[in-house]
């Protein structure tokens, strides 16, 4: 059985269930925390709340904080992952409203809730908690590069916010369904909220980031699999450093490359075209071989959520034929997913 990875939660579990706060988001890709909790922890979500002018919904009942408290909510989670992890001043009145309604606040942003004076003062007066999950542990070691026991699968991507977390969660679930000892290892704030533990890799000082990835996936039984949530993209103009540290530190035996058909440019960076799957596979294997020479690509995970069933099937088949690899949409499942899992274990 695996040695426990670092647990990023307080002595008490996070206050649940949640009201999901969507801020003033107009780009669905930036609401991935809300979508992730909706899809993987629906029983912990009572509703959603947004600023006036927001264009994105998680499809949950719209509630004020007071209504959510009456429905049993214990905390409001900031369900947004925007560039830079900032909390705009325009959100503060809604966040204070949640505290006044009797809800704790849970944040996964780089900006600390306790660093915002109106929130800090309101929480103190009202006896509410401000909980930041994007807070790495102290004294992370520099990466050793030492080969660890056990098996590791890392999801990598052509961009941000296109399915690395969903793919990792699905593959971990499928492995366990086959009777294989497997753990999902969260490397970002949404995964940590879903799993209750993990390592917020993008909040770690860069010299220690690969070491943090080693900590996330420690020595294990030879038959154990850690399925590690990927971050960013090696091609991303801003976040490639996080992806590189995770690749080197996790030392994956297997990678699954994640992609969204039809996306033409890097999310939020219209001047940067999306890399090809071929280039992504080649670069990932070349760089990953530095810490695990036996690294291999098992297949491709496609996010076909914007396509109908027939179009999704065509792109899955065409991609598989072109690359000679198993290709699946993990949410659609089916035989394609079974073949992808087979390839991961081969």
Please provide a written account of the structure.
The protein has about 350 residues and is of the alpha/beta class. The chain has two domains: about 20-130, NAD(P)-binding Rossmann-like Domain (Rossmann fold), CATH 3.40.50; about 150-345, 3-Layer(aba) Sandwich (Rossmann fold). Helices cover about 30% and strands about 15% of the residues. The protein has a six-stranded parallel β-sheet, with helices on both faces. Helix 1 (about 30-40) links the parallel strand 1 and strand 2. The longest helix is centred in the C-terminal third of the chain and has 15 residues, at about 310-325. The two termini are about 20 Å apart. This is DUF1611 domain-containing protein.
Can you lay out the helices and strands and say which pair or pack?
Blueprint: E1 18-21, H1 32-40, E2 45-49, H2 65-70, E3 75-78, H3 92-100, E4 104-107, H4 117-126, E5 130-132, E6 151-157, H5 164-177, E7 182-185, H6 189-195, H7 209-216, E8 225-228, H8 240-250, E9 254-259, E10 265-266, E11 269-273, H9 277-288, E12 296-302, H10 309-323, E13 327-328, H11 335-345
Parallel strand pairs: 1-2, 1-3, 3-4, 4-5, 6-8, 6-9, 7-8, 9-12, 12-13
Antiparallel strand pairs: 10-11
Helix pairs in contact: 1-6, 3-4, 7-8
For the secondary structure, the number of strands is 13
The CATH class of the largest domain is Alpha Beta
Question: Biggest sheet, strands in spatial order?
Answer: 7-8-6-9-12-13
Number of helices: 11
How many structurally independent domains? 2
CATH homologous superfamily title of the largest domain: P-loop containing nucleotide triphosphate hydrolases
Beta-strand residue percentage: 15-25%
- End-to-end Cα distance, whole Å, is 21 Å
CATH topology of the largest domain: Rossmann fold
Supply Rg: 20 Å
Major sheet attributes: 6 strands, parallel
Order of helices and strands: EHEHEHEHEEHEHHEHEEEHEHEH
Q: Kindly report the average pLDDT value.
A: 94
Unreliable stretches (pLDDT < 50, length at least 5) are 1-11
Oligomer: single chain
Examine the secondary-structure arrangement and name the CATH architecture of the largest domain: 3-Layer(aba) Sandwich
**What is the 3D shape?**
globular
Structural class assignment: alpha/beta
Share of helix, binned: 25-40%
């Amino acid at each position: 059985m695996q040695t426990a990875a670092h647990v990023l939660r307080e002595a008490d579990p996070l206050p649940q269930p949640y009201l999901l706060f969507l801020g003033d988001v107009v780009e669905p890709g930036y609401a991935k925390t809300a979508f992730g909790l909706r899809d993987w922890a629906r029983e912990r979500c009572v509703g959603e709340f947004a600023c006036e002018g927001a264009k994105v919904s998680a499809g949950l009942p719209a509630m004020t904080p007071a209504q959510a408290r009456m429905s049993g909510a214990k905390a409001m989670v900031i369900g947004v992952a925007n560039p830079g992890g900032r909390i705009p001043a325009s959100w503060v009145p809604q966040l204070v409203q949640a505290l006044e309604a009797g809800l704790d606040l849970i944040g996964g942003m780089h900006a600390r809730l306790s660093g915002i004076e109106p929130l800090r003062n309101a929480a103190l007066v009202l006896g509410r908690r401000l909980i930041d999950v994007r807070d790495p542990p102290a004294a992370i070691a520099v990466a050793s590069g030492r080969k660890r026991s056990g098996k590791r699968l890392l999801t990598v991507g052509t961009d941000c916010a296109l399915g690395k977390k969903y793919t990792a969660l699905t593959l971990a679930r499928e492995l366990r369904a086959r009777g294989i000892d497997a753990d999902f290892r969260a490397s970002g704030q949404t995964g940590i909220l879903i799993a209750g533990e993990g390592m917020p890799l993008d909040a770690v000082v860069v010299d220690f980031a690969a070491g943090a990835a080693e900590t996330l996936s420690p020595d294990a039984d030879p038959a154990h699999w850690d399925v590690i949530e990927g971050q960013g993209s090696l091609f991303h103009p801003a976040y490639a450093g996080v992806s590189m540290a995770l690749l080197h530190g996790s030392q994956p035996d297997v990678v699954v490359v994640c992609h969204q058909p039809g996306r033409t440019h890097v999310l939020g960076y219209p001047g940067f075209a999306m890399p090809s799957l071929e280039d992504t596979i080649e670069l990932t294997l070349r760089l990953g071989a530095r810490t695990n020479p036996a690294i291999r690509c098992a297949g491709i995970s496609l996010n076909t959520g914007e396509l109908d069933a027939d179009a999704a099937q065509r792109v899955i088949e065409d991609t598989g034929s072109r690359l000679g690899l198993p290709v699946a949409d993990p949410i659609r499942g089916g035989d394609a997913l079974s073949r992808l899992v087979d390839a991961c274990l081969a």
